[in-house]
Amino acid sequence: MKFWRIPLDIDQIKIPRGELHIIKERCKGCGFCVEYCPKDVLKLSNEFNAKGYHPPAAVKPEECVNCHLCELLCPDFAIYSLRVEEGQKEVSLESQ
Amino acid sequence: MSIEVNKSVAETHPMEKILRMDRIPHIWCPTCGLGTVVTAMAEALEQLDLDLNKVAFVSGIGCTGRVAGYMKLDSFHTTHGRAIPFALGLHVARPDMKIIVFSGDGDLISIGGNHLIHTARRNADITVICVNNFIYAMTGGQAAPTTPISAKSATSPYGTYEHPFNLPLLAASSGAVYVARWTALHVRRLTISMKEAITKRGFSFVEVIAPCSTLYARLNKLGSGLDLMKFYHDNSVIKHGADLREVDIDYQSKIVVGKFLDIEKPTFLDCMNEGNRKAFGDKYKPYGGCNGNV
Amino acid sequence: MKANKENVLTGSHYLDGNHATAEGAIAAGCKFFAGYPITPSTEIAERVARRFPLIGGVFIQMEDELASMNAILGAAWGGAKTMSCTSGPGFSLMMENFGLGIMLETPCVLVNVQRGGPSTGLPTLPGQADMMQARWGSHGDYEVIALAPDSPQESFELAVHAFNLSEKYRMPILIMSDECVGHMTEKVIIPPAEDIDLVERRFTDKPPGEAWPFEWSKELIPPMLPVGKGYKFHITGLTHDERGYPVINAEAHEKNVRHLIDKVKKNVDDIIWLEERDMEDAEVVVIGYGISSRVMQPAITKARKEGMKVGQIKMVTVWPFPEKRIRELAGKVKALIMVEMNYGQVFLEMDRCAAGKCRTYLVGHAGGTVHKPENIYNTIKEAVK
């Protein structure tokens, strides 16, 4: 992350990490999450779900900062993120 | 990219506890803004940490009217335009509960217009979330009283000839004590507004500009719901406390959003209790709901 | 259970029909009233507005009749006993949402103090021309229960009865009064509270999560679910299933509509209330309801004195129509005469049930005044031939 000047408490700030969960079968391929993710983590994948839509996939899962914006924007309740605690392995989950 | 399913992690969306999962997936179109507004409401209810047993939703007919069917709360899907009087009756019978009216622009403002202005005048303690997509979506895209002049719709194929309502001005001049407008994309600010509206004593009115992809966007060739949502957000100007006479929305013009009004005024039940106390003195017991529960 | 002493104005009073109706509603425990002023029903609203503050009720004068009907449905779901009153033009406005009350199976009472119609008609004069509208006014198939008081005393009693019926059958009940009864002042004796029996609302006894709002496969009249107690139910005016969720297909619609009809049809014997007199040797039967059932008395008395064998039936419940009784009578008597202040509405039902087995006569007129007993007498004379 680029800082204009180094904050005085930079050693205390921990940038949160998020673990993305995408419920592929609910997705209607609207693209809100892809468009508005501030870290450009998501992209619409090429695969299809059962309804014929392209669900998103996390192309840069390690960049996710758990801001929950995709979770709030998704009209179909198809994506959410969970905070990754220190030391936990970061895995992007795609559940059915 | 490797996929590992970690079984110890929660597999359910955090909103699922407030949604009727036996009715999901919902009927709204892809890129419709309604799901986003429902998510903002679910988030607001979650953050307020209210007793969800004491919250009831009332909605009318239309795409937005279906919201009541998807919230896992006591919810009522009433007839077209009549969500507000139903909510008024329910509120007066149960003043201990929070009644939220969630309906669309056509339902609340056209056929329900009279009820909106009178219930706002009474300053009944209910919250009204009006999702404005500028059209009657459910029935096929007919013009609504909020359709901007020159926009096309199914009943105005050559462009609407009528001026639309300025909803915040209408609500405020009728007597609402809290008036705000946001677009569906302003999710966090919308959530905060919804929280304020729900906890506010008196008639609160929140207008949410949401894209209608299948009807409004398609009939006016404005792209997908995502394009329309982007347009609304990019052209919205945040002006808290703006002069309500200047917040009209023209066709594809800038949209003034923000919290426009937040005043204090005695509610309908306050006034009733006060008036009766003056008339009867100690003989009058303050109204405590139809079963004496407040 | 018994009426609450605080509500009941026990004693002997000199009241008009409208005031008596209001007192009946209050005695029955009505605690929410939403109405709109319309002659000749406004006195009910005015009396309720005066009485409610000290007994814990709320009166709201709504912006129109449409709002009134919906507000009483909302408050009924909130747990209150609710009522509204109107007349012809307002009754027409309330029809859509009366249907909502039927569909949602909401207990409430609606009083129509009938006046001359159609349209603005005769606001200050009586009529009985809304009877078919009471039966079929809202769109779709459904059954109604409608009561017709003939005096202020009966206005009080039928108001209590209407609330009991609404709780028992979980539906809106109609009281089809008329301007003559509404504005007629007579002695009304209001009994002590312990002599007034009330039916209380039935709520489910199952815990949240195990009960649905319309469990009609288990009971013909399913218990209601209380709001705000964790049941988190959803109800809709759309065709729905037992869970209250909308289901849009013919099968579900059949079940739903069938249930609304069966609720009343299977209980007709319990609901129908007729007062019959002099029927043992009757060759001609005169049938009336509301004020007409009183106006027909002098004609019948005169006819009896002259040796004509005339029986009479006063319909206290007009809907559901007593089909079985009329069919039975038609086979035994020479003629059936219907007396009503319209050009033949309930008469059509009587005529249909008579099915040609006896002659049928209508003594009717457009309204605006009660019948002249001579006209009824002349028809009786004609019918006895």
Describe the protein:
The complex is a heterotrimer of chains A (96), B (294) and C (385). Chain A has one domain (17-95): Alpha-Beta Plaits (2-Layer Sandwich). Chain A has 2 helices and 5 strands. Chain A has helices spanning 32-36, 69-73, and strands at 17-23, 42-44, 56-58, 79-84, 93-95. Chain B has 294 residues and is of the alpha/beta class. Chain B has helices at 34-48, 67-70, 83-93, 105-111, 113-122, 167-174, 187-199, 213-219, 225-234, 268-280, and strands at 55-59, 74-77, 98-104, 127-132, 135-136, 142-143, 178-183, 204-209, 236-238, 255-262. Chain B has an 8-stranded mixed β-sheet, sandwiched between helices. Chain B is globular, with a radius of gyration of 20 Å. Mean pLDDT of chain B is 92; it is low at 1-9. Chain C is α/β, with parallel strands linked by helices and 385 residues long. Chain C folds into 2 domains: 11-195, Rossmann fold, CATH 3.40.50.970; 275-384, Rossmann fold (3-Layer(aba) Sandwich), CATH 3.40.50.920. In chain C, strands 2, 3, 4, 5, 6, 7, 8 and 14 form an 8-stranded mixed β-sheet that branches. Chain C has a 5-stranded mixed β-sheet with strand order 11-13-12-15-16, with helices on both faces. In chain C, helix 2 links the parallel strand 2 and strand 3. Chain C is globular and about 70 Å long. The N and C termini of chain C lie far apart (51 Å). Chains in contact: A-B, B-C. At the B-C interface, strand 2, helix 3, helix 5 and helix 10 of B face strand 2, helix 3, helix 4 and strand 10 of C. Strand 2 (74-77) of chain B pairs parallel with strand 10 of chain C, so a sheet runs across the interface.
